[in-house]
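Review box. Two proteins, two foldings.
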Amino acid sequence: MLKTVIGLTLLMLCVTACSNGYSEEEVEATANAAYRAG
């Protein structure tokens, strides 16, 4: 359950970041850091 919530949150963040023009590398690095922290 918690992993699903984290996954959805990361997906939302990725969509938001991508639409704001962040590079995929930046988004991926942030997602990886958040995944490790979670």
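Next protein.
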Amino acid sequence: MARFLVGNPTVVSEPDGWTIAGAETNFIASAGEREQAGELLGQPVTVHFTPVAYDWRYGDGMGQSAATPGLTWEASGLPAFSRTPTSHAYAERGTYAVTVTVEFAARYQFAGQGWADIAGTLGLTSDPITVTVKGVKTVLVGKTCDENPSGPGC
């Protein structure tokens, strides 16, 4: 019996591990195409895994499905805190555990024959990452922090 392992996806966030309530937090999964080679019944076999869907859980009861693993704001050409297909805005301050379940389609090649699809998908869930959500306060001041370094917020 041969066994072919894909490995769990991982998640990163922008900003890294923190955000501001009401602002978009960008999430990116690392789960690209993967290929495993081995032997079955004395013959070479290769299994190719392709991610086809990403199911995000943001830890606050909200989630969404996406067809993309997400991109950094820089790679997307967007400024920080912009909305992306994988971003989420937290309504409340707190600490949240974020995961993504990636659905992989698979196909195999046995003994040098053509590729054949495997029915169904394989769902693998990332380990959670922690995102701490903070609040902000706007304060009107008479001087800049350069002019008054001990002023509010400086």
